[in-house]
Amino acid sequence: MIPTYKELCLATCETARKAGSFIAKERKSFDDSKVESKGLHDLVSYVDKTSEQQIIAELQILLPESGFIAEEGTNTKKGERFNWVIDPLDGTTNFVQGVPVYAVSIALLDNEELVLGVVYEVGRDECFYAWKDGGSFLNGDPITVSKRGNIHDALLATGFPYNDFSKLQSYMNFLEWTMKNARGVRRLGSAAVDLAYVACGRFDSFWEYDLKPWDVAAGALIVKEAGGVVTDYKGGNDYLFGREIVASNKLIEKQILEKIIEYNS
């Protein structure tokens, strides 16, 4: 018998916490000699890979028929119905540098639909999670997106391009507009954390391009279940595999999206 989405989600929270404990322990003795490069400014280490292996081993027991879309590719099995979307360490550069903003991100696809998401921010011991039609939570307490409706009162978040500069000029044009019109703009270095912060109202909106499914899957569902809106740059639904995402509360979504469309047209 397949567990409910709620049961799967709560079990996944424990899996994410275990992976987070491993990551925190390894950080104490970590140094640059253990870093590898997957591409321009794209880092990985044994911590990412081992974390992913540990997560997958637990999820295989939880849902044996499931497959995996995982950043480090330690398991590429595809499930007919269920597929886990995993980032074992979102914010690897922060981790390597000792900047304490990085997270474990785990989501589940039931066919093509996101049905649960867990983001565990290691440094703050904060577990954000949601399941389909169940609402969003932070360490057991319900959370919702902010209710700020004026861009001038809004705190926004983004991620800087680091190896795909094809949209750099349009990105910079929109960034300039946000700097002049919003309360402030932040760049934390972990899309999963950025999305979780939108879900709990710390940020009012987040945007970024050139992201992968494992960067955004869990956080996107948590935002939506917290009452927010998640789209691609055109206002559509291709944010999971379309490599661009905008997440906002419903009150400033239109202001943000109109400008992103304007600067990317």
Question: Can you describe what's shown?
Answer:
The chain has two domains: 5-143, Fructose-1,6-Bisphosphatase, subunit A, domain 1 (Fructose-1,6-Bisphosphatase, Chain A, domain 1); 151-263, D-Maltodextrin-Binding Protein, domain 2, CATH 3.40.190. Helix 1 packs antiparallel against helix 2. The longest helix has 23 residues, at 5-27. It is an alpha+beta fold and 265 residues long. Strands 3-4-5-6-7-8-9 form a seven-stranded mixed beta sheet, with helices on both faces. 35% of the residues lie in helices and 27% in strands.
What is the fold's blueprint, element by element?
Blueprint: H1 5-27, E1 35-39, E2 42-45, H2 46-62, E3 67-70, E4 82-90, H3 92-97, E5 103-110, E6 113-121, E7 126-131, E8 136-138, E9 141-143, E10 155-158, H4 168-181, E11 184-186, H5 191-199, E12 205-209, H6 213-225, E13 229-231, E14 244-248, H7 253-263
Parallel strand pairs: 3-4, 10-11, 10-12
Antiparallel strand pairs: 1-2, 4-5, 5-6, 6-7, 7-8, 8-9, 12-14, 13-14
How would you summarize what this structure contains?
By secondary structure, this protein is of the alpha+beta class. 35% of the residues lie in helices and 27% in strands. Helix 1 runs antiparallel to helix 2.
Please estimate the helix content.
25-40%
Biggest sheet: strand arrangement = 3-4-5-6-7-8-9
What is the strand tally?
14
Based on CA atoms alone, the radius of gyration comes out at 17 Å
Gross CATH architecture of the largest domain: 2-Layer Sandwich
SS class? alpha+beta
Could you list the spans in which at least 5 consecutive residues all have pLDDT below 50? none
Biggest sheet statistics: 7 strands, mixed
Task: Tell me the β content.
Answer: 25-35%
The global form is: globular
CA distance, first residue to last residue: 49 Å
CATH secondary-structure class of the largest domain: Alpha Beta
Order of helices and strands: HEEHEEHEEEEEEHEHEHEEH
Looking at the structure, the CATH topology of the largest domain is Fructose-1,6-Bisphosphatase, Chain A, domain 1
How many domain units? 2
Individual helix count = 7
